[in-house]
Write a structure and sequence with these properties.
This is Cytochrome C biogenesis protein. The protein is mainly α. It has a domain of 145 residues. The chain has 9 helices and 2 strands. α8 runs antiparallel to α9. The two termini are 29 Å apart.
Length: 264
């Protein structure tokens, strides 16, 4: 009962915050960041309860696809709310909060029945750094999409609507690369901890995840090198960001889904 009530709270307030933010961006209503932040805080609180109750198991964890996606989007929403105090990141909530609401419904509606046991501290460190890397880099993808919308509008001389509300292009781009940089720190830690604490990362059930994670790491590394050594920006940086994030998502969720379908 607590899980269902918390899920309802999370979904309602995620949608409320996203809609209010959209209306502010399209200049249909005046910006009221306090209202958006309050709705966001209630949504994150409800989502936190859902994450705790759906992941928790006796002496183990439910780590199915729906629970993991819910955990990642809980962290995304929490980081977005906290970072928006100092950084203009809340516009990304328009796209990310509805996905967070869907992740709540998925965790409640499609729970994982199996339980995973025997987590060592090293394995828990690997899981924690992986989830943080996913959260930060998906936030970077959301920022890249906003940046693409802003770039397209400016190229076609559309200076009204969302373009008037978003921060300057250089600020948006800087925020995207900051998220990528922090995400790369945790992705590197995740890969290193995986090699240190997980037996045989190139076993049949893990090889796709490992190879795709390493490929995403290489792509992000090239992107950061291009940014700081060659001054990459604009559409080129957006395409590299979105491409690398898609590969990273496939690394876990795509291969995990295929494995579950094959076992089913």
């Amino acid at each position: 009962m607590l899980t269902l009530f918390s899920a309802l709270v999370a979904v309602v307030f995620y949608c409320t915050a996203a809609c209010r933010q959209m209306l502010s961006l399209t200049r249909r209503l005046p910006a009221r960041q306090g209202l958006v932040n309050a709705a966001s805080a209630l949504a994150v609180a409800g989502h936190g309860v859902v994450v705790y109750t759906t992941l928790r198991a006796h002496d183990g964890l439910h780590l199915g696809i729906s629970e993991t996606i819910s955990l990642v989007f809980f962290l995304i929403a929490a980081l977005l709310l906290l970072a928006s105090v100092k950084k203009p990141l809340m516009p990304a909530a328009v796209g990310l909060y509805p996905l967070a609401a869907l992740s709540v419904m998925g965790a409640v509606g499609f729970p994982e029945s199996s339980i995973e046991y025997g987590f060592t501290p090293g394995m828990l460190a690997h899981i924690a750094t992986s989830v943080l890397a996913y959260a930060l880099l998906i936030m970077a993808a959301g920022q890249a999409i906003l940046l693409a919308v802003q770039t397209h509008a400016l190229k076609h001389n559309h200076f009204r609507g969302i373009v008037q509300v978003l921060p300057p292009l250089t600020t948006m781009e800087k925020l995207m690369f900051e998220l990528i940089t922090y995400g790369m720190v945790f992705l590197t830690a995740s890969i290193v901890s995986g090699f240190l604490f997980i037996n045989d990362l190139f076993a049949q059930h893990l090889v796709h995840k490992t190879v795709l994670s390493l490929l995403a790491w290489v792509l992000f590394s090239i992107l950061l090198w291009g940014r700081y050594q060659r001054g990459w920006r604009g559409s080129l940086a957006i395409r590299w960001t979105l491409g690398a994030v898609i590969i990273l998502i496939l690394a876990y969720f795509g291969t995990r889904l295929i494995v579950q379908l094959l076992h089913g």
